[in-house]
Amino acid sequence: MINALPWWIEVPVGLLLLLSGGFALAAAIGVLRFKSFFMRMHPPALAFTLASWAASLATILYFSALEQGLALQAWLIIICLSLTVPVTTIMLARTALFRSRTGQSNEDVVPPALGQP
């Protein structure tokens, strides 16, 4: 049987999970709504990361209260996301920019390369 937690723990956990779902929904709508790849990169990079932060914080709060001690295993998720998401986003952007400049893609809005007038 699952131990019941006090309401003052369950309410913030529920709010953090709702916030996480809202961020994920906003990111999904942004991916569907935007037309170019460069615009579509930002919703997943920003909103999904915020959604993961909120879900991880809810996990930390819930399991810390359940185990009556500090449960910090979910911080590994946050640390990995903080390190990998910016690197992945930059690599995807550079690849798309290279493909657009070499004519392998049909993106409309591509900034000129540095050093070209």
TrEMBL record:
Q: Which InterPro entries match?
A: PhaG_MnhG_YufB
Q: Which residues form the signal peptide?
A: none
Which key words are in the record? Membrane, Transmembrane, Transmembrane helix
Span-the-membrane segments of this chain are 12-34, 46-66, 72-93
Q: Name one Pfam family in it.
A: PhaG_MnhG_YufB
Tell me which domain of life the UniProt entry assigns to the organism this sequence originates from. Answer: Bacteria
Q: Please give the NCBIfam families that the UniProt record associates with this protein.
A: PRK12674.1-4
Protein name as catalogued: Na+/H+ antiporter subunit G
| Classification of source organism | Bacteria, Pseudomonadati, Pseudomonadota, Betaproteobacteria, Burkholderiales
